[in-house]
UniProtKB/TrEMBL annotation:
Compositional bias annotation for Acidic residues: 153-165
Region (Disordered) location: 129-165
Superkingdom as given in the UniProt entry: Bacteria
Pfam families noted in UniProt: DUF6017 (PF19481), RepA_N (PF06970)
Domain called Replication initiator A N-terminal: residue spans: 15-89
Protein name: Uncharacterized protein
DUF6017 domain: residues covered: 167-286
InterPro entries: DUF6017 (IPR046059), RepA_N (IPR010724)
Lineage of source species: Bacteria, Bacillati, Bacillota, Clostridia, Eubacteriales
Amino acid sequence: MTLDYFYGQAGELFSFYRIPKALFQEQRFQDLSTDAKTLYGILLDRMSLSVKNGWLDEQSRVFIIFTIEDVKRALCCTDNKAIKLLRELEKFGLIERKRRGLGKPSLVYVKNFSAESSKSIFQNRDFHDSGGFKNASQDPSKSRCNKTKENDTEMSETDPFYSEEADGMSKRTQLEEYFSQSLEVELLLRLCPDDKDTIYQIVDLLVDTCATNRKLLHIAGDDKPAEVVRSRFMKLNADHIRFVLKRLAENSSPIRNMKQYLLTSLYNAPTTMQLSYQNQTNHDLAMRG
């Protein structure tokens, strides 16, 4: 393919995405990937459309609606790459995504990269390493206790939802937004459309369980401290949910109590998933040998 040259002012006839030079020149952005910088430029461009449409929240902050599918189309990338880039921009504080409930696309706030008051990129970090939820109005920083008992290990993180009304949001509302984001419900619904009802049921079950004021919860035939259960559930991600859905589909025995079945499956998901993958790996290696 042979392309022509630009002559005179012809270059000004086209539209371009504008990526701030600061993302390439400033030290704080040196670890930001080029693809993430490109996506930020695309999101900035979409901001102008939001301004024209009057898309402002109650505090007059401009937001855009830019889904994972939009990222995939804009950059011609996969689901995983789109999710990774959005998380990367969140990590550097360049965007903030706010959930609006199940089935609705998130609001995306494109943050001002030039603000001198930029805070540490880790200030609004996730509640767990695999999640993507961030909300500037909350401060889910973790504080470790000095307890050394083994039973206290999973209870050593401060529960960010103890305040019944934090920043105008009820504990249940915060949990709904948290799980919708950390479990990547939008992605799950696209990947597992036949399991839509079960996915909603799982999210509701996680919210109900983590919002309870009970001290003990009956799971897997045993009463477990609610704090331990809450800690485990808040570390779940989309892979764990897909694993639970897969095990549910493979189960041929009648399930008398679906709620208890799901609670047990979700509670054990991190361990059973790891064991399952390890067994599969060992089996594959044995077959090759």
